[in-house]
Amino acid sequence: MRAWVRRSWVGMAARLLLAAVLGYAGLVKIRDLTESGRTVALYRIVPDDSAQLIGGVLPFIELALALLLIVGLATRAVAVATAALMAMYIAAIASVWARGLSIDCGCFSSGGTLTSGAERGYVIDIARDLVFFGAAAFLVRNPRTRYALDRWVLDMKE
């Protein structure tokens, strides 16, 4: 099997993994946008009003990226946006950890203040997001994937 064929299958897997993660995260958060805003506020990075706005918009961005990844449309651009989102998540979690705050990241649920064990959770959250960042980075370099609309829209030949 040629290298570009393998990359297209790996790329499809990366596309679908990221779509599943972003889609699930967006759907969980969209159920309660106010709680999503409160979770963003717990990070203490932006003012509360901005946190509510970010918490309200973020699930829709995650869902939009997920849908584009599922169908494989604008894969490179979506992968760049996804990598930027993952880098932002990693930086936010690292910031909370460095400041000694003890919160649930709220990545796949409504977050909240924790009483203990946050350090272990931060390592797992950051490691997980680094894997997702790596998948997005792979797609930035290898946007041609199997079963993607990009092949028809951009008239990509095999």
From TrEMBL:
<feature type="domain" description="Methylamine utilisation protein MauE">
    <location>
        <begin position="8"/>
        <end position="139"/>
    </location>
</feature>
<feature type="transmembrane region" description="Helical">
    <location>
        <begin position="78"/>
        <end position="98"/>
    </location>
</feature>
<protein>
    <submittedName>
        <fullName>MauE/DoxX family redox-associated membrane protein</fullName>
    </submittedName>
</protein>
<feature type="transmembrane region" description="Helical">
    <location>
        <begin position="50"/>
        <end position="71"/>
    </location>
</feature>
<dbReference type="Pfam" id="PF07291">
    <property type="entry name" value="MauE"/>
</dbReference>
<keyword id="KW-1133">Transmembrane helix</keyword>
<dbReference type="InterPro" id="IPR009908">
    <property type="entry name" value="Methylamine_util_MauE"/>
</dbReference>
<keyword id="KW-0472">Membrane</keyword>
<feature type="transmembrane region" description="Helical">
    <location>
        <begin position="12"/>
        <end position="30"/>
    </location>
</feature>
<keyword id="KW-0812">Transmembrane</keyword>
